[in-house]
Amino acid sequence: MSNFTSTNPAKAIQLRPAKNKFKKQMLWGYLFIAPPFIGLAIFLLYPLLSSFYISFTSYNFSSSPEFIGLDNYKRMLFNDELVWKTLGNTFYAALGVPIGMAVSLLIAILLNQKIKGRNFFRLMFFLPTICSVVAITLMWQWIFNSDYGLLNYFLSLFHIQGPAWLTDEHWSMPAMIIQGVWGGLGVNIILYLSALGNVPT
User: Fold this and answer.
1) Which of 48, 144, 183, 196 could form a disulfide linkage to 165, CB 3.0–4.6 angstroms apart?
2) Where are the domains of the chain?
3) pLDDT tens digits for 97-115?
4) Which of 173, 165, 168 is nearest to 88 (CA)?
5) How many Cβ atoms from other residues are within 10 Å of residue 125's Cβ?
6) N-terminal to C-terminal alpha carbon distance within the chain
């Protein structure tokens, strides 16, 4: 016995326009998503790959790059003290993230209790988030001022000589961490309060 495959000409004619329409829709879809991908390739991918390649060369913008292998990385890791200081400052500044999360969680737990004036305290902690950046900067400059700042005045009440928070290289980073933790309290507390509100009691 032999098998015969029969085709329906009418059905094939009906499927052809649908197939062409699908191809046209796919073409328009590719055209619409092309600009973001082109921009990503031009402004992110190409500079990233170029920088990675140039890091293995000696290049001063006046001559063509000359491949030198890992010499730049060796000089950076073993001969440049500024790199290690920068990494140390980055690690030091990163400490503000877990500190801010812990402080925000603690305050959120306290504000989640049934205490008098709870809504007022919630507003006060969220207020820095909606304040002007310029006003907040001026306020912290006044607080950290070494001559008439509020923080050093508070320390003087306990006969403690306050440091120059903004000009001393040992105290400027803690001052920035304090300011960063304070500035991020509002949003973090709201997020923690939302999560705590869903916890069954």
Assistant:
1) 144
2) 9-79, 90-197
3) 899 899 999 999 988 888 8
4) 173
5) 20
6) 77
Question: Could you please report the per-residue DSSP string of 67-126?
Answer: E-TTHHHHHHHHT-HHHHHHHHHHHHHHTHHHHHHHHHHHHHHHHTS--TTHHHHHHHHH
Predicted model pTM = 0.59
**β pairing state of 66-67 and 57-58:** antiparallel
For residue 172, the one-letter residue type is S
Residue 140 phi/psi, 5-degree rounding, is -70, -30
Burial class of residue 146, CB neighbours in 10 A (0-12, 13-18, 19+): middle
Name the fold adopted by 90-197.
Answer: MetI-like fold (1.10.3720)
Residue 47 has what pLDDT?
93
DSSP line for 20-75 = HHHHHHHHHHHHHHHHHHHHHIIIIIHHHHHHHHHTTEE--SSS--EE-TTHHHHH
The phi and psi torsions of 66 (rounded to 5 degrees) equal: -115, 120
Check whether 10 has a pLDDT greater than 70.
Answer: no
